[in-house]
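Troubleshooting log. The previous structure file for this entry was overwritten by mistake, so regenerating from the original sequence record. Sequence copied from the archived sheet and checked twice against the printout by T.R.
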Amino acid sequence: MMKLNTKFQLKLTFKKTFLFYLLTIIVVFSSCENQKDSDMTQEQLLAMAKDIHNRVITLDTHCDIDVNNFTDSVNYTQDLRSQVTLPKMNKGGLDVAWFVVYTGQDSLTETGYQNAYDNAMSKFDAIKRLVTEIAPNEIELAVTSEDVKRIHASGKKVAMIGIENGYPIGLDINNVKKFHDLGGRYMSLAHNGHSQLSDSNTGEKDDVWLHNGLSDFGKKVIAEMNKWGIMIDISHPSKEAIRQMITLSKAPVIASHSSARALNDHSRNLDDEQLFWIKDNGGVVQTVAFKTYVNQRKQNLYNDKISGIRDAVIDSLNIRWYSWPEFSELDSNAQNKFLKNRNMVMALVDDKVKSMTDFPPQVNVSDFVDHIDYMVDKIGLKHVGISSDFDGGGGVDGWNDASETFNVTLELVKRGYTESDISQLWSGNLLRVLDDVELIAKNLQAQ
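Regenerated output below.
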């Protein structure tokens, strides 16, 4: 019996010694790896970031469009002044662009609803022309995550469709399914101004509300969106409307283009309470690279300095300029015209500023990724994504159009995000929600 105990003790001692040395080797190896990462040259870091960027699927959930850029003679195969084109997507490695069927808010009348519906249909038609007539060999429409992966593997770019403002639905709930059948896979229920479906965040300015959240019809639209598999987009509606949407929805929601209010107190951003609602709901916040939503104080300092230069450019071009509150009051045609002119003016201003010194810094990619960091820390990596709001006022220094998309990945790599993390942020989280919404829709349809 004594010999057995001694033998057992010898085995135990050997195992402990072996495990100790194994643990020591792992710790030393890990330390070496960490040391190696910290000692990387800029060239090595850049090369690693490029490799990651090429391997992950990069997806931007919010790119506005102008139907005038979807014609035989003027279209996305050309390097237009717009922030998103196929050449820019190719240069920057942006794989998936959600093109937005956006309609500005107008009167809640039969005429208003008809005009809004016509505007929405013109944008659905423009996107369809791009993928079926203008550039079918370069870009294809996706409606599921499997479509995204298949199209990306083929070497093509991917188009998806989001709907910004449910106003074009009018009072016909059948339009929800119609918009789904046309390819729409997310929809917000309001924009700047209260719609027939939902109050807007803009009500914070004067504390005037139309529905105190959602209208009765808006609540029915939420159920219909769940049934047909359209993600509910909470960017733009009021806080109370968002609370009601999340309470009513049987599926996870998204914020297609919003950032963290704790870092920048703007009504378009989400406060911590809202962030936790989205986490508990299983949804995702697509952090938006919109300067005044990222860092309004910094942008105001820059704007104050640049306003004189911009005004001189505007005068020389004889262009009518609008503030964002004035912009929200324009009809859709006037808004599209202004956005086109704005992009042209700001490009000329940027060229002038580059040759000047002692200019206040612009809101940049680092400021933008600060919001990603904050929300990842607050609600977890799997609830955070990326968006630009390109051609709708979005863009920051370093990610001012699709050609600069790589710079976002580079900043994430610099901050220690792994390839798996970056893949989730760029597309994995959003596509997970899309899958969940689709599955829930199938179950609801079967009932």
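The beta strands are 59-64, 96-102, 139-141, 157-164, 184-188, 231-233, 254-255, 284-288, 384-387. Archived copy saved in two places this time.
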